[in-house]
Amino acid sequence: MIYLLANSDQFAGGEETSRECSSCHSKRIWEDGKRPVNHGIVQRFICRDCGLRFSEKSNKGIAQSGNRQLCAIPQDAKKLDTATETNTVAGDMKNLPQDARGLLAKYMAYVERQGYYENTSYLDLMKRLAKAGAKLLDPEDIKAKIASQKWKSSVKMLSVYAYDQFCKMEGITWIKPRYKQEETILYVPDEKDLDALIASAHSDRMAAFLQCLKETYADPGEILRLEWRDIKNNVITIAHPVKGHLAGHAQVTNRLISMLNRLPKDSKLVFPAKYANMHACLRALRKRTARIQQNPKLLEITFKSFRHWGGSMLAHYTNGNVLTVKNALRHKRVSNTMKYIHPIQIRDDEFEIATATTPEEVKQLGQGGFVKFDEMNGIHFYRKPKRFGGLQ
Questions:
Q1: Whose C-alpha in 40, 63, 212, 387 is 20 to 30 A from the C-alpha of 248?
Q2: What's residue 219's pLDDT?
Q3: Which residues contact 161 (CB under 8 A, 6 or more apart)?
Q4: In degrees to the nearest 10, what's the CA dihedral of 179, 185, 187, 191?
Q5: Per-residue pLDDT tens digits for 98-145
Q6: Is the pTM of this model over 0.85?
Q7: In whole angstroms, how far apart are CA 147 and each of 125, 140, 176, 389?
Q8: Could you read off the pLDDT of 222-236 as tens digits, one per residue?
Q9: Nearest 5 degrees, angle CA 99-CA 33-CA 100?
Q10: CA-CA distance, 267 to 226, in Å (whole number)?
């Protein structure tokens, strides 16, 4: 998702002009630097109220195409060429009805002030409704549009939450329709498939991000908010939990710490990237790795699959101990943990088998996550599921 910044003082140094914003009609328009193009130099402007960026005519008198709202982080925006800039239009505002553009720009600034995470899906859902022809100021029309969409109940439920914030912004009273999230069975991938994605990542950042998901069992949004100060020795602190989660600590391996130390430290964030960009990289990584390894199961793995794998692994090795799983996943409510407490059907050929004859070998297998299942003539037989590499 593109992050629109409104009412920010990060653009100090610009000069106020007498122009008017075509979106919110504010007169707080500031100069925002010049950009070289093929036919000359154009002056850039930004609205300090809604974040709209637009160009003046070039020094050769050729008008620039349309108004564009760009990622309002100056140092990132300066690195974009003209072609890239066109592709980073915030949610394709130009494809929305004219009356919806200003409302949605105002809406994004509002949800930011309300403390919602910048990668929230609220703006995307509102744009989808606007593209479907919904009248944003008419609650009954919004209800009809949501009901007519071929979305899952969970998406419709989020759409209701998104529009409820819009109504609070505009002072509109409405009666929310009721949608309930359907229960789904978690997809639990094999550990070797998770490791295959990590090993195939060409980017150090993506490899470290995936390994961090695997060892902390965290939500991807929590890892994107991870700061360097949250890492101390071999302990990672989840200080910015998502909704429904608690803050907590996770003990990690030396391997992950080494991977993190290879990353540049030019930001307070360990992974200074947008969720949409990381997810696009994951899609490309899955497709490439699945083609090379001829393993279509890799295409089903998402960022949250690492968390699902961790919760199911803990439930398996603790014989369904709800409190252990709840504490590891940092759930606020036990009801969220119960979906991980389910019988896992594992065939005989999905186990790794090992034997031990000495106390030292028994100790090593126990530390490796193996569980004893038989004994014969002084030989101890151990096994563990292939999809779980054992507790670390």
A1: 387
A2: 92
A3: 122
A4: 130
A5: 788 888 888 888 888 887 765 568 888 898 899 888 999 999 999 999
A6: no
A7: 14, 11, 12, 44
A8: 999 999 999 998 999
A9: 10
A10: 11
